[in-house]
Amino acid sequence: MERTEFKTHISAQYNRNLEDLFNHVLAMGGLVEGQLNNAIEAIKGSNSTLASEIKHSDKFVNKHEVEIDSLCARVLARQQPTASDLRLIVSAIRIAVDLERIGDESVNASRLAAKMADVEEIAIETLPGYKALLEMITIDLNILKMVLTCFSQLDLDRLEEVIADDVRITEIKQDSLQEIQDSLNSHHGLAEYTMQMISSIRAAERISAHIVNIAESVVYLINGKDVRSMNSDKLTEFLSRIDK
């Protein structure tokens, strides 16, 4: 499947609308990538200013979702798309919803930076779960880039890596929560900050789940198969069997 497939209609406006849809999704994805990258830097430096910028940028992410919805509605009403065009519309709507939620979770994850910015006596890197949180968000950022590249190039080649990294994130989360529980048993004074750490770790895990949703939408767009009911093992097996 090639992007040029969406530029072969008699109506030039139809072709432009489908190309605009690709570009809107990718622009929205770029903004969310920026949020995740800023979340990593904000947490590293307990930077409340950067955390505020992540929250501010969320309004632009939300605006993109509204524009994608509006564009999809116009195409559905005027061109009545079928086959791969219709799958592009459905996939774009689903991906925009997941990107919007990743943006929200980036704001939630970065709240730790804002909270720790006012605490001089405790260094953020000494909190239990700190390394795990940074590793999780870094993986989130990398797999988001991968899945958006797959969408842009209509290529399923690297989606198996996305699924494998999502599984890895779940493992990191479980290990980090055990580390935090052990720390709480011996350092009661950290409870307020470790609770925020737990909230950020759970946000990072939810981000990876939304990225897997995007991967499933890309599979639907390219292959036509709805794989949302598959667990990670079945999805990995499916991706290994299909002709990419």
Automatic annotation (TrEMBL):
Name this polypeptide is given: Phosphate-specific transport system accessory protein PhoU
Keyword Transport listed: yes
SUPFAM superfamilies: PhoU-like
Family, similarity comment: Belongs to the PhoU family.
Function of the protein: Plays a role in the regulation of phosphate uptake.
Alphabetically ordered keywords of this record: Cytoplasm, Phosphate transport, Transport
Subcellular location: Cytoplasm
GO biological process annotation, one example: intracellular phosphate ion homeostasis
Start and end residues of each PhoU domain: 26-111, 133-218
Subunit structure: Homodimer.
Any GO CC annotation of this UniProt entry: cytoplasm
Main location per the UniProt record: cytoplasm
InterPro entries from the UniProt entry: PhoU, PhoU-like_sf, PhoU_dom
